[in-house]
Amino acid sequence: xxxxxxxxxxxxxxxxxxxxxxxxxxxxxxxxxxxxxxxxxxxxxxxxxxxxxxxxxxxxxxxxxxxxxxxxxxxxxxxxxxxxxxxxxxxxxxxxxxxxxxxxxxxxxxxxxxxxxxxxxxxxxxxxxxxxxxxxxxxxxxxxxxxxxxxxxxxxxxxxxxxxxxxxxxxxxxxxxxxxxxxxxxxxxxxxxxxxxxxxxxxxxxxxxxxxxxxxxxxxxxxxxxxxxxxxxxxxxxxxxxxxxxxxxxxxxxxxxxxxxxxxxxxxxxxxxxxxxxxxxxxxxxxxxxxxxxxxxxxxxxxxxxxxxxxxxxxxxxxxxxxxxxxxxxxxxxxxxxxxxxxxxxx
Length: 347
Known about the structure:
Number of strands: 11
Low-confidence stretches: 1-6
Helix content: 25-40%
CATH superfamily of the largest domain: Aldolase class I
Strand order of the largest sheet: 1-2-3-4-5-6-7
CATH class of the largest domain: Alpha Beta
Number of helices: 13
CATH topology of the largest domain: TIM Barrel
Distance between the termini: 12 Å
Shape: globular
């Protein structure tokens, strides 16, 4: 099964772009990725939380410091931001604090500080578990740093999140699957998957313009990330993000057109379509026929596909389906019945 039931959670996100990072990775332009180069203050923390809490939409909030290497920034500045956030944790108005950082910016001392300020979740930018890929992309650490930091984080009682990138310079689909398998061995609570986007002003962009780097096309990226999404879900690891957030700056600076704002939807659509065809093949349904397809209500649009793409693909095989919501079907699964004979395809 893909995914697991979620409580209604949301991040109150504050971005700390480029601040404190000791390396400039090949793919990195945080100003473009986050849409801002502004460094948040304690007042920004208060304003962001108050705005979120005043919304009519009620969520289980976490305050999230993203966009840079949070534990590598100036220590006094880091603690001022944490102190501003911690008051809302103590009062019970938010459930905790989430931060993202580099694997080589984690040690026992910094974990003690984070614990004292109510941090509950730490995400590490692993990106790849291939030492060669990490070196080619100037990450400044190896895979052992990811393993060591992950183990320390879990031993200190934090929720562990790991972030990976697909299609990096020097990587392959096979190496990206290897990275996912190594991440699964570390048993994180959550994962984010970011297909590499080639941006103007980055080293990766220069390599692309010189013909030394070939980005992964969108269709291949969808195929790969659908596989990874399914793989993580089989191990009950929640993929909380798949693809970069849309921004005008991102679209402006992209050098190779393999970005899609609904990337996760494309991957989920593929999983549903592949599963449908597999079940039809197993049941001996080839071409021609009218089918009832029962899916979980949360997956109706995923089965139909972006722009009804899945329905069109199915009809090309002479199969015609009626999609029926059924809460008794597990998410990302389906039950298929042949209307003519009423024969049900096994789950």
